Amino acid sequence: MVDVIISLVNRDSLTNLLSIPLGEVISGMEGMSIRETRPAQVESLHRQFDIDLEGEVLEWADRIGEINQNATLPNQNLKIEDKLELLLLLSHWSSTGEWRCWDARLFLYVEPNSGTDVAGTESFLKPEIWRNFSEIIANTDRSSFVESVVIDWMSRREGLGETMDPAMDPRILPTMESHQDSSGSLFDIMDKSRREGHSLLIGREYLDPLSWYLGDQNLLDFIEGF
Q: Which of 13, 32, 42, 220 to pair with 48, CA 20 to 30 A apart?
């Protein structure tokens, strides 16, 4: 299964990276000096490691070859696909935490609190559903949200005639703990976004950068309007 990815992006950090010469960004990644400008990670969330993103940025630079060292990324004379590829990496660099989830589990975590019936997994890649979800769960607290997810999961299992007896199915307790951890992290990232005004980067593993969203804009609209 492919994970949907929701990342909490510090817009000030991303704006800074897009406002300095690209040559400085790449040299900073190569010398690891730019790490000190990366926003602090939210303790309850995971995010991509510094060294992995640095490696991907340097691989991008090697593949592209010659760039205008003194121009910012938005002002580079490059194919838009190449610009968006790096923009996506820099957005991940500016993330304070991310949340990953299998497509199927989103129908358990998000759909009941989205205010709509979700037609398919592609709907989870659109900002509207996350905006509605954020507004609805703002009226509850973390523990209540997590509890509602677990109760819904249990009722769905029982509706399918599945046992809830751990003695009969040893996977029940680990699965319950997984739902508790994952739904709690989801609540945290949405709560942080709403309270601190950080944008959500929305996409999926292996998804073309053209199809990712940052806030209410896809990456193409974002960089063209920068």
A: 220
